[in-house]
Amino acid sequence: MARRGSYAKGVAKREEILERSLDVIAREGYRGASVKELADAVGLSQAGLLHYFDSKEELFTEILRKRDEVDARAYGGSSEVVSPDGLRDGFVGVIRHNADVPGLVQLYSRMAVDAADTSHPAHRYFVDRNSALRASFADGLRALQAEGRLTDVVDAETLARIVQAVADGLQLQWMQDPSTDMAGTVEAMFRALDPSVPAGDPKETS
After folding, report:
1. What is the pLDDT of residue 151?
2. Which of 62, 108, 130, 179 has a CA-to-CA distance to 166 between 20 and 30 Å?
3. What is the pTM of this model?
């Protein structure tokens, strides 16, 4: 019983670390969020913090995983069935929310580059995440194509990869130029792919 209670406390502390770390990085930015600051936020020493993770890289990987979990609850994409419109609107909602948490965007973008190395602790996270995101999007885009609300000139799997590439690329542009309207640009892309929107439609991104 004591061992079970100790395990439960360890899981709870790990969750607290991840949740508090999300707040610290969102507020202080990736550069300002040192292991010391994250440890201070939960009342631990640096060694005490890393007791719950194999390395600093694993800590940051799990922070990104926690962010995905939080975003899924807030914007859809969890285990319940999500409509094609809900999936698309939830994706745009996440992108719009990202503009309010620049530190987490910086963390994601920097880790994504480092994780191209197959030995990096975050490599499997990014491979699995990207694959799952494309699969979910392909299903939603395929349904929109079947309804005639999205061009079928390009297959859904390729469109899903294009949407993902646009979103990731916009994050880099936004970090360099914060005036970039990431969500508005993605919404404009979906309008451009909608065959019901006349050529030269006067709508502009907000």
Report:
1. 92
2. 62
3. 0.83
